[in-house]
Amino acid sequence: MIEVIYILWLRQLKHYWRSKSRLLGSLGQPLLFLVTFGFGFGPMYARASGGASYMDFLAPGIVSMSILFTAVFSGLEVIWDRQFGFLKETLVAPISRTEIMIGKTFGGATIAMIQGLIVLSLTYALGFRIPSLGSLGLGLIFMSLIAIFFTGLGLAIASKMKDMHGFQLIMNFLIMPIFFLSGALFPLENLPSAIYFISRIDPLTYGVDGLRGAITGMSVFGIYSDLAVIGVLSILVCAIGAVLFSKIEA
């Protein structure tokens, strides 16, 4: 079982590493958000918050955004493999489909983590600093849980689809509200009650809040509450994905 998971994990990492354009292109949007929002809204945020740094608030949200976008689109690998016949070869092999799901989830989550770490390193060039190694370690836990949850979500949805373009449209329809309502770009305090309610049921909200609390000390719901919620959701979505993947047809 471990060998199967490792091979599938390694295959996705090799695809990622060989696609330099994918690696570089995926950094454009996070860097744009960091520069335009960080320096554009920084002075207003500082005045409203009594001198606090908007980059300290923004950086965890943009790191989460990078992980989110990379993780959910890992589901494209399933549709791509189905169209070119590799998925059929994998499904007829004497291995369980749960092993295939786990391997692909770990592969997609690892790639998303790498993207998140690259973006996190870019924030250092813009003035963001993590206070301690302990904070970084806790932040990495939240980053990994965000990656696992949204990779599992992307794979679960992809297992029920055969059209690559339809998958991209559906994922864009889902992830843009998930990102913008997560509190990645603005504080959740003093929001209208309807928007605040939607933010509370957004899974990324707890990932962003937990990551922000871990590496900056700014948390709305509490780090351990965030950890419990995003941890349970990650297990749940992976379990659902495993069930859906067990019924997939090549």
Explained architecture:
- This protein has 250 residues and is mostly helical.
- The chain has one domain.
- Helix content is 78%, strand content 0%.
- The chain has 13 helices and no strands.
- The protein has helices spanning 2-18, 20-25, 28-40, 42-49, 54-72, 76-83, 86-91, 97-125, 133-158, 164-180, 193-200, 203-216, 223-246.
- The longest helix has 29 residues, at 97-125.
- The radius of gyration is 18 Å and the shape is elongated.
- The protein starts with a helix and ends with a helix.
- The model has no long low-confidence stretch (mean pLDDT 84).
Structure at a glance:
The protein is mainly alpha-helical and 250 residues long. Helix content is 78%, strand content 0%.
Radius of gyration: 18 Å
Q: Enumerate how many helices there are, as a single number.
A: 13
Question: Which structural class matches the secondary elements?
Answer: mainly alpha
Largest β-sheet summary: none
Helix and strand element order:
HHHHHHHHHHHHH
Helix content: over 70%
The number of distinct β-strands equals 0
State the main characteristics.
250 residues; ABC transporter permease; elongated; membrane; ABC2_TM_bact-type; ABC_2_transport; Nod_factor_ABC_transporter; mainly alpha
